Amino acid sequence: MNAQRSGSRPLLAGNWKMNPARASEAAELARGVIGAARAASATVDVALLPPFPWLLGVAELLHETGVGLGAQDCFWEPAGAYTGEVSAVMLSGWCQWVLTGHSERRQIFGESDEWVSKKTKAAIGVGLNVILCVGELDDQFEAGRTDEVVSGQLQAALEYMSPGDSGRLVIAYEPIWAIGTGKNADPEHAYKTMRAIRRVLDESLGDEASSRVRILYGGSANSGNVGSYVELPLCDGCLVGGASLKAHEFARMIEVVAEVYGGPTTEEATTS
Ligand code: PGA
């Protein structure tokens, strides 16, 4: 791996999924991360993605901390008769971030590439930063089809995207077999897939716009392995599920990323 790191600021985003069950627990979790995130803020971008009902409470806690807030999904229409949905424009008053195309949305809730594309375009259109997720199934991985699957998902998602949108776009490569399994992807595999992702971005958006798009790894990332991803030349951070539900563990991940990028650790930052 001889390429240099992309030069972008690293991003660590905590996808809480449908957790925790109580507002007080959500507040405690957010509070537990703020210190480490502030200490590393010169080097690392941090975002928390709680479930919809906890967004407003967490927004208050994060106010003026520099820690970003995001939702886990959105709908493309601004308002209307769409029972159960939350629009991108509704989120834009509270959030800086939104996830689109998470594999749980695709697999459990049947979201198509076309939906992912419309959500991504709508969210960027109202000023949100989007973390767009792509990734292959276990059998596709075993069959050596990762690049083909991930490239196809990405090409479809970029259909309505213009190069000017690229500064608000982040791609998370999340192999589905690695999500929540404790079986994180080999960094070499992640690197090869990120190369394929970068190729599609270059072709679809042009080199300059592509260079503004950060690429994350996701799938059983934790404080023990996050360093091996953010050291990869093409990897700009991680999308974190399970490990983001433990404040101490997520805080440690922030410190590790700051260390890899040569920024101050919590200790140095708090004593300086
Ligand atoms: P995990 O989830 O870190 O628990 O594997 C990652 C994700 O689904 O974004």
Labels describing this entry:
272 residues; TIM Barrel; binds 2-phosphoglycolic acid; alpha/beta
Describe, in plain words, how this protein is organized in 3D:
- With 272 residues, this protein is an alpha/beta fold.
- It has one domain (11-271): Aldolase class I (TIM Barrel).
- It is 42% helix and 14% strand.
- It is built from 12 helices and 8 strands.
- It has helices at 23-39, 55-62, 88-91, 103-108, 113-125, 138-142, 146-157, 187-205, 207-210, 226-230, 247-260, 266-271, and strands at 11-15, 45-49, 68-71, 97-100, 129-134, 169-173, 214-218, 237-240.
- Strands 1-2-3-4-5-6-7-8 form an 8-stranded parallel beta barrel, surrounded by 5 helices.
- Helix 3 (88-91) links the parallel strand 3 and strand 4.
- Helix 1 (23-39) packs parallel to helix 2 (55-62), helix 1 (23-39) packs parallel to helix 11 and helix 7 runs parallel beside helix 8 (187-205).
- The longest helix is centred in the C-terminal third of the chain and has 19 residues, at 187-205.
- The protein starts with 10 loop residues before the first strand and ends with a helix.
- The mean pLDDT is 94.
